[in-house]
Design goal:
Layout (H helix, E strand, L loop, with lengths): L2 H6 L7 H8 L3 E11 L9 E3 L9 E4 H4 L10 E9 L10 H14 L8 E14 L5 H12 L9 H5 L5 H15 L18 E3 L6 E3 L1
Antiparallel strand pairs: 1-4, 1-5, 2-3, 3-4, 6-7
Helix pairs in contact: 2-5
Length: 213
């Protein structure tokens, strides 16, 4: 559950300062336009980030290239066109048919496929897909964590539950460790993916010494 909704749903209510801190946590929303094409192969990549100013999509996934089992018809391909947006904005409020039409135009604009290749489509909206790291988020999060830390029967997990931009592996790990906590363990879930710096050891070919970056 997103921390903002968790604090807002408590009864008795959290202190006013904590509710204000939770209200200060912001999110980026997301939608996927899934298009089914009557082509067995479109491009070899799993996904592609799009940086073309002529289209609105930010990323495109080719589900079949993750696993052929994700597309039961070997003669077809399912592409997931991903759009980063905010709930209530122009993209979010477009009708599904309009978004599917937009996706068909954009794959043709990018030269990935013809709009005529698309035989079906659907839209999936995902609110609060990304926690926003703005200037005030860390102080807001600190206040919320301090308050919730007194609730010994509460486990906070995942990207929304911790307002942390974890990848899927880290999010799943927090859930697994939380399950162990319920059974009596004492894992610190906030220590998952808590590295502040990442170091790479690069061997400089000119000297025998390692260079840390």
């Amino acid at each position: 559950m997103p921390l903002r909704e968790l604090i807002g749903g408590l009864s008795p209510a959290a202190p006013a300062a904590v509710r204000a801190a939770a209200d200060g946590l912001k999110y980026r929303d997301f939608l996927t336009v899934a298009l089914i094409l009557n082509r067995g192969d479109v491009f070899p990549d799993n996904w592609i980030y799009i940086h073309d100013p002529d289209v609105k999509m930010g990323r495109i996934q080719n589900y079949k290239n993750w696993s052929p089992d994700m597309v039961p018809d070997a003669g077809a391909t399912c592409l997931g066109l991903e759009y980063f947006c905010f709930a209530g904005d122009g993209l979010w409020t477009m009708r599904d048919a309009e978004l599917i039409a937009l996706g068909k135009r954009e794959i043709e604009t990018l030269g990935l496929a013809r709009a005529a290749d698309v035989v079906d489509g659907c839209v999936v909206r995902m609110p609060k897909a990304y926690p926003v790291y703005d200037a005030g988020y860390s102080e807001h999060l600190r206040a919320v964590r301090e308050f919730l830390g007194a609730l010994t029967n509460l486990q906070l997990v995942g990207r929304n539950g911790m307002h942390r931009y974890n990848n899927q592996d880290h999010s799943m790990l927090t859930a697994m460790l939380a399950a162990e906590n319920i059974r009596g363990a004492h894992h610190d879930l906030w220590s998952v993916n808590d590295e502040q710096e990442y170091h790479e050891e690069i061997q400089d070919r000119r000297t025998p010494h390692a260079v840390t970056t």
